[in-house]
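Lab notes, practical 5.
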Amino acid sequence: MRSSGLVLFACAGLLLSGGAILGGSTAFTLLRMSYYFWTTDLGVELGSIVLFIAGAFLCLPSCWLATLAPYHSKSVSILATLMLLVTTSILLLSTGMSAITGLSKAVREPGALNASMLRAMAHESVDPAVRTAFSAMQIELRCCGVQSNADWYQHRRVLPPSCCGRLLNGKNGEQCTSPMHAGGCLRPALTEIRMFINSVCVLTSAIIIVMASTLFTAAYTLVSNALERKESRALKIAQPLRIACLHPTIPTPDMQQSIANVPIPPQI
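Output from the prediction step:
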């Protein structure tokens, strides 16, 4: 019991730190990346990142229960709840790992993402969402166009203001004619996605290993507590058997003399 409590305490610390890092970094990356990738075909794949956030946030109550379970009077119910939370979190993270393969496919086959960004660029003049997404992406990634800044000239006469590092045209109405960064956004976007996939997969795999250890230790502690309680109840019910043994008394010389001195009543 003591050793399992120490293991649960160590797993609780790892779950707290790992869950906070995974949940916070994934939520921040989702808000930042989805802002300029949502208009492409990666919207569904980016939506699957929510599974990582949900699984990471389940680490926080699991951490609390793991530190409370070994020494609480209601440890059985707490351990059962801990096992349920850990199992749910493992399923969420595993599903997220399976769903993120769509993003990795975009890295392996950049032609699909290239075509998707070019299709979105064609609607930039009529769709404010596309215009805002490209502005954010070009300012954030320091790029212009998809392959190069020449892609914009297929749909408009001048470059958008974001290619010059600003959201709007200048005060005097000057337009962007010379981009700050001539390179396209496809390559830095793929680099961004690749770094995100690698970091999330490594951290998620580590958390799943810690959760598997927590689940095994909680199950072991639950079974051990059940066996100990069963043995203690059996000891309380079984009463010790007491046997009285009567030994014959051997008369001593004093007892024989006192018996001989006893007068015998006369017989009538």
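Observations recorded by the TA: Residues 1-111+187-231 form one domain. The two ends are 84 Å apart (CA to CA).
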